Amino acid sequence: VIDSKTPAIDPNDRFTDEVALRWKLKEKPGEYEATPADPDVDPGVDETLVNPLIGASIQGFQKGVEGLAKEHGATFEEISHGLRKLIEVAEEEPVMLHMFLESMVKPVFFPDVPGESMMTPNDTEGPVYFPGAPEISNPGALPMRPDEPGTPLIVSGQVRLTDGTPLAGAELDIWLAAITGHYSNTELDDQPLFNLRGRMFTDEEGRYEFRAVKPVPYYIPVIPDGLMKILRGLGFSKFRARHLHVKIRHPKMAEEFTTQLYFKSDPYFKYDAITATRPDAAALALETELHDDPAEIAARGLDEPFETAHFDFFMEPANQAAAAA
Ligand SMILES: [Fe+2]
């Protein structure tokens, strides 16, 4: 593998750690098997450990590299650099790298095909969900401070099964970041506990309406530098697009449903690392309407213009999941 193309080892490069490790092993004679028990008859292979998927994975990887070289002119140095960056990210923040790689793998097995299913697309939960948010009335407002900054946003709609049956008594669990870009319960700012987090139940027609504030795009401070470089290289923003998180639960549903609602007019929407690669992301984008008529504002008990959005959720029924399994 090491040939004349291999770049000289940079003394500042962390990969010299690998060299150090090799020397450490040399310092520990007897702690590992240095030579086979019988070099003439023992090939040192345990056939029971052979997994053809591992060989196929390596071949797939090589094919990918070949494609990069032949179709995109990638050089050996560029590929090596990319590998080093990936390993650096793995060292820096393995969980974030896992989430990123999983999002690349998932579409192969669970393709997002727009229009194929009526089901509302699900979306990642994210790291800041906290169970046990206060229950609010329906229609109602999420717990918030009297002077909560941000444009008031009223979201309403219906929760139904994919066959059209309205889901009465479905539990909506909603959470979003404040205008600071931080979530309550994370102690990253001075929001009260469970600020902008609430649970509500749909009425007998499956309808819901809640007031929040329009969320802002926010920076994800936990993304390690290395992964951020990869995301920037893919043309993604370092900000998440404006979004609200929602979970829905009901005994007639196959399982708890988790998604995020976005905003069609948000310029960050198409550069968000989570939504940019999803062909069905548009199905999660809200269209908002601004209301600045003083009478309408007063009728809502507000003192500033507000926005409204409508969104109907279509959930997979429990029996359908059983039939498909
Ligand atoms: Fe979020």
Short characterization:
This protein has 7 helices and 13 strands. With 325 residues, the protein is α/β, with parallel strands linked by helices.
Question: What would your notes on this structure say?
Answer:
With 325 residues, the chain is α/β, with parallel strands linked by helices. Helices cover 27% and strands 18% of the residues. It contains 7 helices and 13 strands. Strands 1, 2, 5, 11, 12 and 13 form a 6-stranded mixed beta sheet that branches. The chain has a 5-stranded mixed beta sheet with strand order 4-3-8-9-10, with no helix packed on it. Strands 6-7 form a two-stranded antiparallel sheet. Strand 8 (244-249) and strand 9 form a beta hairpin. Helix 3 crosses helix 4 (94-109). The radius of gyration is 26 Å and the shape is elongated. The two termini are 46 Å apart. Residues 1-6 have low confidence and may be disordered.
SSE order in H/E notation? HHHHEEEEEEHEEEEEHEEH
What structural class should be given to the helix and strand makeup? Answer: alpha/beta
Largest sheet: 6 strands, mixed
Task: Tell me the total number of β-strands.
Answer: 13
Ligands bound to this protein structure: fe (ii) ion
Q: Provide a count of the helices.
A: 7
**Principal-axis shape:** elongated
Alpha-carbon distance between the termini? 46 Å
**Average pLDDT across residues?**
87
Instruction: Report strand %.
Output: 15-25%
Unreliable residue runs: 1-6
State the share of residues found in helices, binned by percent: 25-40%
Radius of gyration, in angstroms, nearest whole number: 26 Å
